[in-house]
């Protein structure tokens, strides 16, 4: 099998093919074991012509236009261009992929278009965010983009959804067929009006929301669609006044941050003045489990704590499921932790999660979920409060202020980062 062309292709281009794609290409030959050797060559030729792979191709920065031109000469499908990070994605045959890797000098690296998945009760008062409300810091004038499964126009947020794009189904009006994105939107900016005494009010109840649907009904999506969503936010930052991106999704980190296209995308958004909050992941308590794009050293990576359903912070512990550092590059992560266990937020009636987890409904308007997915938009909501108070802060300055406002929980930095955010400290 060592002389087969795809094996040779992988060998010739080892540094240009990411680990997952290498493994996928070598698995191409698995069915050959049960087929007579004499049929291997014609079968290989046939499969190379008709078997398609979804890939993300990164070009050398100075050769992007040339690389895109070469891609367009192939018979590829679903071509999407990401000039922000000099990448594109496409579906192509092995014949075309082999031709490109061998002849297109503009290619820096090719990645498998891997899967990404979706990773308020006492949470708001327990992080001190309610104290900021008393000072009228409610996220007014700030906009949070929720890159997720969409947003259902729940009564607690519907008047503040100022933008929506559906990169899965192409629909124009806000919707959420999974329910995860709606919950996250409520974690950040729900106003609690459908609850008694606004019990389920989020940190930024007057912030605006932009929904970016990149995950499907089951909460799954692809590397290329997530990149497309981040690029859309960056390109439309001025039109929708996007200040913050909340990313409660992730994928196993298999490449260094510098070689990870979605990390490159979030860092471009950061460089363009957008604060990015990313979930650490739900693969704890094992060490070294921080998900991509939370492995980015630039963005704010959020872990989860269990507040034990009390406002008193003394009984709070880091959630067992919350991913631990260090990252694949040995950076200390997460950056900080916020509540992420049994968080009550907005319900999307009839969505996948709503039907699959009826027991998680809280009344008719709310829903309980756990995960760093919940802690992340809560952090995004606090960022909106801070930016209302100090609108000229850069993303780096926002991050520094949040880290300095944390309380040490006595856990290793790879478990708690700088500790448990206490938003009250942002008033000083």
Radius of gyration: 22 Å
Task: Return residue spans where pLDDT drops below 50 for at least 5 consecutive residues.
Answer: none
The biggest beta sheet is recorded as: 8 strands, mixed
Tell me the total number of β-strands: 20
Q: What's the average pLDDT?
A: 92
User: What is the rounded distance between the termini?
Assistant: 67 Å
The total count of helices amounts to: 15
Question: Which strand-content bin applies to the residues?
Answer: 15-25%
Structural class: alpha/beta
Shape: elongated
How much helix, percentage-wise, in residues? 25-40%
Detailed description of the structure:
The chain is 31% helix and 21% strand. The chain is of the alpha/beta class. The strands form five sheets. Strands 6, 7, 8, 10, 12, 13, 14 and 15 form an eight-stranded mixed beta sheet that branches. The chain has a four-stranded antiparallel beta sheet with strand order 2-3-1-4. Strands 9-5-11 form a three-stranded antiparallel beta sheet. Strand 17 (361-362) and strand 18 form a beta hairpin. Helix 9 (223-235) packs parallel to helix 11 (261-271).
Question: Keywords, please?
Answer:
428 residues, alpha/beta, eight-stranded mixed β-sheet, four-stranded antiparallel β-sheet, 15 helices, 20 strands, 31% helix, 21% strand, elongated, Peptidase_S8/S53_dom
Structure summarized in a few sentences:
Keywords: Hydrolase, Protease, Serine protease. Helix content is 31%, strand content 21%.
Secondary structure elements and pairings:
Layout: H1 5-12, H2 19-26, H3 40-50, E1 52-59, H4 64-72, E2 77-82, E3 87-93, H5 94-103, E4 107-112, E5 115-118, H6 123-126, H7 129-134, E6 143-148, E7 161-166, H8 180-189, E8 208-213, E9 220-222, H9 223-235, H10 237-240, E10 244-247, E11 249-250, H11 261-271, E12 275-279, E13 300-306, E14 317-318, E15 336-339, E16 343-346, H12 352-356, E17 361-362, E18 366-369, H13 372-389, H14 395-404, E19 406-407, H15 413-416, E20 420-421
Parallel strand pairs: 6-8, 6-10, 7-8, 10-12, 12-13, 13-15
Antiparallel strand pairs: 1-3, 1-4, 2-3, 5-9, 5-11, 13-14, 16-18, 17-18, 19-20
Helix pairs in contact: 8-13, 9-11
Domain Peptidase S8/S53: 141-419
Keywords: Hydrolase, Protease, Serine protease
Protein name: S8 family peptidase
